[in-house]
Amino acid sequence: MSLVELIAGADGRGLAVSGLACLDRCVPLLGGDDELLRPLWASLGEGGDGAPGADAATWGERLDRVRTALTERATALDGSGNGGGDEVGDAAVRRALAMLSTAPAALPEELREGASTDTRLRTWADDCSVAALRIHLLLDPGPGADLAAGGAPEGGPEDPLTAPRADRGGALPPLAAAELRRQVAVLELLAARGAGGLRQAHAVTTEGRRVLSAVVSRRSRGRN
Fold first, then answer.
1. First to last CA, the chain
2. What SS3 string covers 104-161?
3. Of 56, 80, 182, 202, which one is least surrounded by beta carbons within 10 A?
4. How far apart are CA 121 and CA 101, in angstroms?
């Protein structure tokens, strides 16, 4: 099943985890670390399946704290995040900030029931998927940045992300291809196991975050 189909068919918890995982893998750009988003993961795991599910109240409170912390860290990095001040890096930082700023302040009731969710959460998950892939395309040390800057309208048929997300061919550079695989893995885990797949989804995300952190560090060393 393609990434587009997995997002279209995901329940509320799957969408929330998918969006959060995309953001979490990109937090090195904002000065984040392995622990910063862990409270949000905990919110999505509370209750498990069949009980009251994710705790909407704690999600909102914890999201506010995460936003404050990342804003402070970005300020400490002279407001530019870890993009390094070049055009490509700054574009990646802007996309990571957009994922954070558009995160839903509250989780819909249907998330807790495991039913299909409303369009707002689905839109956020889809936007985070595209943003995370675009970030990995931009930061790929090979041809990724050239592909991202190719001038094709984003979301259109010539966008280098459109065909791979729909599993209709189209090769991505290694960094972006690995991010695509992680997005698919997270959604498949949640579809198969519900809340029981959360730990594995977090492990997949932690691996991806550390990969991007290494890329950010190499870019920083290359400019110094």
1. 43
2. CCCCCHHHHHCCCCCHHHHHHHHHHHHHHHHHHHHHCCCCHHHHHCCCCCCCCCCCCC
3. 80
4. 13
Model confidence, pTM: 0.89
CA 183 – CA 187 distance, rounded (Å): 6
52 pLDDT higher than 50: no
**pLDDT at residue 144, rounded to an integer:** 58
Residue 59: what residue type? W
Those residues whose C-beta lies under 8 Å from the C-beta of residue 85, and which sit 6 or more positions away, are none
Tokens of 54: 């994710």
**Encoded tokens for 186:** 């997270």
Q: What's the mean pLDDT when you consider all of the chain?
A: 84
Phi-psi region of 140 (alpha: psi -120 to 50; beta: other; left: phi over 0): beta
Residue 90 tokens, joined: 């700054």
* Alpha-carbon span 198 to 37, nearest angstrom: 14
Cα separation, 196 vs 187, whole angstroms: 12
Cα distance between residue 95 and residue 86, in whole Å: 14
Q: How far apart are CA 149 and CA 137, in angstroms?
A: 10
Chain segment 89-109, per-residue pLDDT in tens? 888 989 999 999 999 988 876
Query: At which residue do the structure tokens 């993961």 appear?
Result: 41
